[in-house]
């Protein structure tokens, strides 16, 4: 089994403070961490390695400062680490990022065939959830998103079975390898790094690949140039000033209370009120129609 | 009840800014270590301490270890936690790489060990004693003994114990009576009873390696007639597998004030024909070997003091923020407020916090000195660091542990009535802290060592050098602006004066009136603890001031200066009073005729 885990280093949003006067984000001293969602991906990969053997390679595209995130992953027990870094990569959006990661995975694959790629569900700084699917598409990997549990891997049949959380239930999905899996939060708990692994991580050689080493074929697809996304405006939605209202009703009559409440609320949203009224009318109509049939 | 949250910010600060982590990792022998690795290790250890060890601290205390039919069962969760602890490599942190250890600097392992002790002191004793047993074998064991026992002890598969105490040999180990009889095949048979043996039996590992002090036939009386033996619970065959059960049994465990999860065993050796043991090192040199290891063991118990004070402080802060009682002074008709608003609760919390931080700073600085004493390329530097560590270790042991009892008691006080109720968890810290000032040499034994071997014997050379070093800080303090530094400077200078006066008196009187000197030995130990703590807090305040001046807005630094100021006004002010007691107090201590007691 060769498993690749794509991770990203992000600022620890829990530790970001907002300047009390200027209201700007104070980045000073905010530690960088592994994107918390990626920890579920790392743990899932390591658990599979524990079970089936093989190796886990962690991969990140980022500035040279992202190296500690890779060492951290090594200290959990990942075997190899690759940092893909190049000045040209700066300003990449999800399209360009997935291109670079896909190229790097292809390069890794030439050395040791890759059976599985894991990513987190999304990052806490970008929140797009696009990079994983982007990589899968480019590499023509089977894609399983929002996976909450790896049920089994059948190496002989070259297949994997997972559980995927979906609205209203859990889907059990099976597909063939190679596949890319994006892991859902809470699907496992990252193990404790062991002291020997921490020593190994501190000494380990992190492979640093520039665009050539990573096997980038088309430099127009990387960095700012390869990023069609435009951020037109960043703003904080201004809170609407609204006075609290007191709504009184008779506790002994919950139905009437609900109606009072709905009336109050729906006045604010005429569109919904109209729709509701309509459904009610329709229902009434069909019910009376039914009655007539009997 | 609050869970333990490792004070990583203060730990990193003390390691880097006060104890010189950068220099420590440069020392020969630590090539594999750097500050990034140190950060990574502390972070992982803090998670293990907070998530695995802390949650079973209170339940372990409530349940306690159980004895049945010569075997001990540890409380729920302990076996699993221990297995994980060993699997994650924590047992091997400071051990020599030769036997599978990581060979970390003392400074780093000290911070890590503080976390285990804070999170679950009763649990932490097992790996601590194993480390002691490993060091004994490393110090004096033959290669064959090392090969046989060390790898599995370092990996944590087996644990170790120290069997020194007997019913009539506690502080005075020269009175050991346990016998060892040579068998002619290089092994010995051990007969005798040991008491108070921490983790003397348990079900966390399949074997336990006991290190036992005993006397050979015809050995000279007293300290020069005691030898050290390894006695495994199960015999170890040549291929490393376990053989027969050895004749070393836990015949009961004690009912104690605290550390209930840690079994304190009465050990019977040789009730069924003799326990097989192997001599460690040479005959009759057992106590000498114990002395070599003593620094490490005493330091480790001193860290228990720091750790429990920290835990008690965290618990008290947690409660004080939550408990609503009374209104704020000066706010007439105001709302009910959390007790954190009451000046006396703040005084208690600041007292706890400042003493804990001071004790941590001193201990880590001593740990770094122990690293330098062992690894520095320059012999003179090694010797100076060794002398400093030798002087300070009884202080770290004696002062931090006594302080932790006081601090844990203040923690109970913060809780009011709930502090007296077990469910809050505050009471456990007080009960657990109480033992730290007793085992591994009581505070009095530490104080005797301090004023005798570490001061009087060398005419006070090291303490004088340390005092001179302390005085060097004055110019730096004088160069700072602001009321905080004026106060710190004034109190610290007065504290150093008081220390010098007392030190001179003790060194001078030691020969003429040895009883008078010893009547003041514990107060002197406390005095040195306070002034040395104030010294480190003043250094910390200077670093903090420098950071603030450099534009760093981390509130940690402002808090450090406030805490240092508090320590100066509330602890350093005690220095002159202690000196007066030391210099004038012996008369009252010694005057009463014995029959009047
Ligand atoms: C929970 C627990 C765990 C322990 N674990 C271990 C262990 O794992 N292995 C082990 O070998 N031992 C262990 N001990 C024993 C411990 O080290 C001794 O209890 C301790 O050294 C004190 O000895 P003692 O109890 O005989 O007290 P004593 O020596 O009888 O002391 C009684 C009092 O006299 C004072 N005193 C005695 N001599 C002097 C002196 N010369 N000058 C001034 N004052 C003096 C002491 O300070 C104390 O106040 C443990 C004890 C306990 C309670």
Note the main attributes of this structure.
heterodimer, A: 294 residues, alpha/beta, Rossmann fold, 9-stranded mixed β-sheet, two-stranded antiparallel sheet, 13 strands, B: 597 residues, alpha+beta, 8-stranded mixed β-sheet, two-stranded antiparallel ribbon, 21 helices, 14 strands, 12% strand, globular, binds flavin-adenine dinucleotide
What does the model show?
The complex is a heterodimer of chains A (294) and B (597). With 294 residues, chain A is an alpha/beta fold. Helices cover 35% and strands 23% of the residues of chain A. Chain A folds into two domains: 2-221, Rossmann fold; 254-293. Chain A has seven helices and 13 strands. In chain A, the strands form three sheets. A nine-stranded mixed sheet of chain A has the order 11-10-9-12-8-1-6-7-13, sandwiched between helices. In chain A, strand 10 and strand 11 (169-176) form a beta hairpin. In chain A, helix 2 runs antiparallel to helix 5 and helix 3 packs across helix 4. Chain B is of the alpha+beta class. Chain B has a domain at 459-589. Chain B has helices at 8-18, 21-26, 35-53, 57-63, 78-87, 106-119, 121-140, 143-154, 286-322, 343-375, 379-414, 426-434, 443-451, 461-471, 473-478, 483-509, 514-519, 521-549, 555-572, 574-584, 586-591, and strands spanning 66-68, 71-73, 158-163, 179-182, 187-198, 207-214, 227-232, 234-236, 242-245, 248-253, 264-269, 275-280, 324-327, 336-338. The model of chain B has no long low-confidence stretch (mean pLDDT 96). Flavin-adenine dinucleotide binds at residues 129, 162-165, 170-171, 196-198, 256, 264, 435, 438-442, 444-445, 448 of chain B.
